Each structure stands twice: as structure tokens, then as C-alpha cells.
User: Fold this.
Amino acid sequence: MKERIKVAVMGYGTVGGGVCGVLTEKSSLLGLRSQGEGSVELKYVLDIRDLSDSPVARYWVKDIGAIVSDPDVDVVVETMGGVEPAFSFCMKCLSAGKSVVTSNKQLVAEKGEALFEQARRSNVSFRFGAAVCGGVPVLKTMVYGLAANSIRGFAGILNGTTNFILTKMFKENASFEDALSAAQRNGYAEADPAADIEGRDACRKTAILCSLAFGRHVYPDEIPTQGVTGVTDADAACAAAAGGSIKLIGWGKKTDGAVYAGVSPMLVPASHLLSHVDGVYNAAELHGDKIGSVLLYGQGAGRDATASAVAADVLDCIRRPGFDPAYSWAPSNGERVADGGVLPCRFYVRGTAADPEKAAAALSAALGTPRFLSRAGAPADELAFVTAQPAPKAHLLETLGSVTAFEALRIFPVFEG
Amino acid sequence: MKERIKVAVMGYGTVGGGVCGVLTEKSSLLGLRSQGEGSVELKYVLDIRDLSDSPVARYWVKDIGAIVSDPDVDVVVETMGGVEPAFSFCMKCLSAGKSVVTSNKQLVAEKGEALFEQARRSNVSFRFGAAVCGGVPVLKTMVYGLAANSIRGFAGILNGTTNFILTKMFKENASFEDALSAAQRNGYAEADPAADIEGRDACRKTAILCSLAFGRHVYPDEIPTQGVTGVTDADAACAAAAGGSIKLIGWGKKTDGAVYAGVSPMLVPASHLLSHVDGVYNAAELHGDKIGSVLLYGQGAGRDATASAVAADVLDCIRRPGFDPAYSWAPSNGERVADGGVLPCRFYVRGTAADPEKAAAALSAALGTPRFLSRAGAPADELAFVTAQPAPKAHLLETLGSVTAFEALRIFPVFEG
Assistant:
């Protein structure tokens, strides 16, 4: 038991600023919660920018050496973002025997293997709860709450920006472009929104969830990823007609020893809670062999929510300073994620047909009475439906190819939970 | 680090049997997850019944002395239910320096003060995650996931039996009696369902959540509790007309230093996730000053789901065998929970009026244009509405009392999140 636990924060951006705020504001509470007494105190804030006029001026250092060489620093928080220099700095801290907490999903998704290896060797704690779903303790629940379970799979709305966009399209019939502009105006989307709308952010979180759930490093480039740029207000309206909504879902499952994963827009039926998760909120469902399903929902981003997750991890490092094998994964075994397209599911399909009646009859014959969807204001040649029988995607594509009267424009899986 | 952690289970009922199953089935996994190696093993099963023909025959003991006096036992699980002898047995185990895990909400709600006191004195762990929402790690999330937050409040669907009944009334227009029978046929309700339908079970869980959230023991008898026996299919239909559903909500909040809490049916608007929590599922929303809201959802009861939560607590006891002040609360200070009726909210009201048109006009004048609700098959003298302006309940009752043309039969708060 140490009376005053000292923390260094690397990177004074939005999240780093939030973490500094929590640490200074709640120093005694954090001491009480982690050890039953004492305090948790900010000692350094590392940034290449000049912080001499900031509220953390007295903690400001420019050189990582100051943190690494100070035996008084117990825990280092990394909130710089990106892979370098965050990776080198974290490795130095771990090597110096300091526990490390990060909110950086790219770092963990791409460099987790090496970071765990060093943390194990130094027998220190390495934690990254804020990297997935921000403030919502999804990773912690998986590792500690469901500790007695083998995780069978997970699925979630892991990116708030795209969920804001899809919600706006769904609830207000906004076009994709208008919804994206609104997200940017509200500060939910970057000026360059590519990482969000192309699904890369959700993909990184999916990779982390997969790795932790199934125990070996799954890299983002293994995961088939489709963003939301192909979703239109027409799809949103068709989804409503089908009694559901379109959501960008990151998912993973383990069946017969193989790991499957993907990120793509899906039609989520209203009977599932995920279809009711709106706006910038995140939600993730975890499936365990004992618990069945558990769903967590909350703010996936934002300064204070993310800082809340980082601070909780800092406390875990204090409570359990040694390496925690349960909160880690093994190196990749070289096997890649299996192609989820082979898993049978139902599909939402929207396309065009010069003669919709004839096409509908042909599709009904070929697919076994799909459920056709109608929406107000649809062009005369639009035909949209949900297939009735689960089938692998290749099988669906083959069948659709055989119906020459119909050309498919959108094919999204139906989420089955 | 101990190679083989030994566990005793007191009470071989549904939950106890599930715990024994997890411990024997997952002995090595639990060792790995708690310590990184070794095993977690069942050593004793205590029951007054003859277990000599059961799968746990070789662990069976009838005398608590066998467990208390065996220095090899690290953790004792209590799944007997009720206050005595569970309380005496737990106290003996804690006094003997053994960590204790219980799924017994009545025990924790009524005897938590004394149990914490003994755990603190013996410096051992006392955990009870399974006592609220079964397998869903609500308490663990509050204490560890939101460790950097001050908890402002919570609200949840804490009883699966009544949620099954209300869902059946809502989705199938079943009467209360038919829905209760269905719950009994499906094994979701006891032959004597009083503790569930009168709200006592939800009240105990609310008391535990309040105590942990606000840091001092809140006793069940402090919490104004109304069950679901007063809810009819007419209310379910009116709630649907209002764009929501009736749910039994257990809630607590701390405002200006005062703790408010209650259990009662509420009209939950469809815009809130809780209105979509159906069947025997549980959900709880926690409000923290940093995180905003987090909601957890899953199976609140059942053998395996509850055993999952108990086993996770056993692992926490192994990881951190000493007393954890963060996972406890102070004794009651004698102050009782404040009357939630003073907090302004909107209300759902259903009643009768000999002349509904005249009554509606009078109510509109008195209440400031409430939203009137119509449902198919309503008797001619029925009048139901949702008030427009939040007001304390006493104020509403006074106003309703002044409208002599209308007699209120049901008054439920509108859930505001």
C-alpha cells in the first residue's frame, strides 16, 4: 500500500485532458477506490506542444525520459493516438516496470502482441478498456464479469459517428450526405471522416474484441470490412418497412474452432435491442456459454466518458500491478479469420427490375417466397426484399445471378443476434 | 500464488448446483483466469439433505464445522437462500478468514452491515454480484467499471418474473391472471408468487443497488414499494397508445445529499431502451457523473447465468483476497430514504368518468392539456391520459381531487431516464 500513487499522462488532447481532469478532481476518491486509502495523483503530462499556459503547466514535460526514469511513477496513461511514437513510448514505460493504460485502439489492434510480451516480461499491468466503446466497460465485462464463460461471440454498434448518421437517415429520412454534414457540425465526425464511414474504426475495435474473446491476436486487415458509404435513405426506409433498422455491426464468433469476424451494415430486426440503439451511442452484446447474452450500452466516445474508462483502468493497475494473463491474448498463430460469407444467414436485398412484377415472381420461385418491402416514394423499378431462408452469401449471389430480370444494388445480412 | 484453490459451496439447490457444475467443468480455466495458472476446485458441498446419491456425493458434508475448520478452504459460496442459517454460516466463514461469495439478495439487503464489518475485521473478501440481476454484472460494473464516477442514480427492470408477466400482457393482451399462470407454467414464477408480484424481490435488489451506489446501508423497508398486481391489460394497451410500455422499475437517486428510491410500475417511453426489455430479461441503467449513462442487459436469473456471476466473484476473491472497501458500504446512519413523491415527474393516469367529455375538459383545464389515450375495446366511461407537466405526486393528487367528474383508478409515474 502506497500512500500516494503517481500517474503520468502522455498526450494532452481531448481524452488526455479529460484524464488529467479526473485525476486532479478525484484524487482522494480514486485512492479510496483503488486501495481503500491514500490518493492517486497526476505527476507528469507529456506533450510536444507548449503547455506552459495550460492548466497542467506544472506537470508538463517534453521528454519521455523524465517519466521513464522517475521511480515514483507507478502508472503511465497513453492518450496520444496513432501507432508512433505511442508504441515506442509505451514499450519504454513497460520496460521500466511501469503499468500502462491506453485509450488508443489503433495501437492495441496493431501492436498488442509486442506490448503484452513486454508487459509479461516486466510483470506489469497493461490495460486498454477505453479503446473499445469508450466509457462502456465492454472489455472489462468480458474478462472479469464473464470470467467463468467461454466467449462464443459478440456483436455491436462500435462506432458512434456512423450510428449517428444511420439514425438520422432512419428517423429523419436524411440523405447520407446531409447526415454526415450534421455529424460534422455536431463535432461527432472528423473533417476527414474516412476512418469512421469506411468502417476502419469499427474494424479496429472488432479486432480487439476478437483477440480478447478468442485468445489470439486478430489483426484489423484480417477482418472483411464494409462501411456505411453504400447505405442510402432508401435502405433506411426499406429497413423500417421490414420492421427494423440498418446498423453498422462489428461481430465475431468462434464455431468449431474457427474464428469468423466482420464489419458491415446489417438489417437489425426491431425485436433486438441493438435496433433501438440510436445516435452516437454504442452497444455491444457478448455471448458466453454460461451467461447467454449480455448487452452493454452507453457513450462510446467523448472526453469525460473515455476518461472515466481510463481512470477505471488506472485503478485496476493499482489494485493488481502485475501482468494479468486474463486481460491479454496470445500472438497470432498465422491463421487468418475465416470468411464469414460461408455462415448461412438471411439477407436484405434492394435492386432494380424493368418489370418488377415479373422479377418478383422469378425471385419468389428462386428464393422461396422472400418478404417484399414497399416504401413511400420508391421508384417504379425498385424491388426490395428480405430472404426467408438462411443461406451462405455465395449461394444467394448465385441465385440472384440466375434471375436475369433483377439487378441487386444492395445486399446486407440480417442480424440474427 | 497457490496451485490449487479450494472452494466450498453451502446449499445444493438450483444455483448451488450450477456453481458446482461450473467449478468442476472449468477448474483449469478458472485457475488460468484468476491467477494465470493452477486450478480452482470444489472441496465441500454443504446441505442438510442427503446428497449421497447426487453427482457431488464425494464433496457432501452436513456440518459447517468441516468447512470452517479446514485451512485448505479459500473461498466459501453461499447459495442457501433466506437469512438463517445463511447469515450465521457466512459469519463463521468470514471469522475463520475465508472469503465469502453469495447470491442471496435477502441476506445482503438485510445483513450487509454486519457481514461487511466481519469481512473488514478478518480482512477477507465478501462479494455478492449474483444478488442483483443474476448473471448480468451490474454491481461489478458500478464498483470497478465506473470506479472514477460518483454514482448519481440508477433505474432498472430487476425482476424477470414480473417483466415476463407485463410483456405477455403488453404483447398478447393477456390478463394479469393468465400471464401469471403462463409464468408459473414456464417455471419463471414460484407457486407462491407474492415476493415477485408484490415487488419485494425488486425492492431487495433496489436496496442493494442504493447501498452500493450511495455508500450507506439502505434497508428494504425504507423503500416505498408497489408491485404489479394493480396493472391490468387495459393499462398495457393504454401504454402502447402512449408509445411506451408499463415496466416495474426499481430506482434510486441522490440529489442534494438526499437519497430517494422506489419500486413501482412506470410508463416507459419507447425512446428509452428499458421499454424494449422484454420477457424474463433484466436491465439496469447506471448514471455516473463522468460516464453519463451505462445500461446492462441480460438474463437476471437461471441456474447457469447466476452460477456465472458467482464464479466470477470467486475469481475476484482469489485475485484480491483482502477486504475491498470499494465493494462495500457504511452502516446505515439512521436517516431513511426520502419520499420520492416530492420529485416532480409526469404521470400516466387511468380512471372513469360518467361524462368523459366533460371530465376531459375539466382535466385539460386543471392539468394543462394532458395527452389523452384511446385504446380499442375501452369501456365508454374510461378516460386515460399522460400529464404534460412534471409535478410532485401530491400536487397531481390534489388537482385530480378537484376534478369531481373523474375518478382515478391507476396513477403510474412516467419514466424519464
About this structure: DSSP finds 14 helices and 15 strands in chain B. Chain B has three domains: 4-134+322-327, 147-299, 344-413. The domain at 344-413 of chain B is CATH 3.30.70.120 (Alpha-Beta Plaits).
